Automatic annotation (TrEMBL):
One of its GO terms (biological process) is molybdate ion transport. InterPro entries: Mo/tungstate-bd_C_term_dom (IPR008995), Mop_domain (IPR004606), Transp-assoc_OB_typ1 (IPR005116). Keywords: Molybdenum, Plasmid. The keyword Cell membrane does not apply. This is Molybdopterin-binding protein. Coiled coil: none annotated. The keyword Lipid metabolism does not apply.
Length: 68
């Protein structure tokens, strides 16, 4: 896979929950869970299944910081 984004985290899919149009895919990256919201069609096209390996690719223009 070649991609321009530098923030890519390889992990194992631990959960795929399909909704009406959008799925939540949870990926375990070194003990931390990253959740992505993608279309059901993308889940099917990529063949995403629990136990499979996948990359969480993070592309953001802003990072916000908050405190209590």
């Amino acid at each position: 896979m070649k991609i321009s984004a530098r923030n890519r985290l390889k992990g194992k899919i631990v959960e795929v929950i399909k909704g009406a149009t959008t799925a939540h895919v949870r990926i375990d990256v070194g003990g931390s869970i990253v959740t992505a919201a993608i279309t059901n069609e993308s889940v099917d096209e990529l063949g995403l299944k629990v136990g499979g390996e996948a990359y969480a690719v993070i592309k953001a223009s802003d990072v916000m910081v908050g405190i209590d």
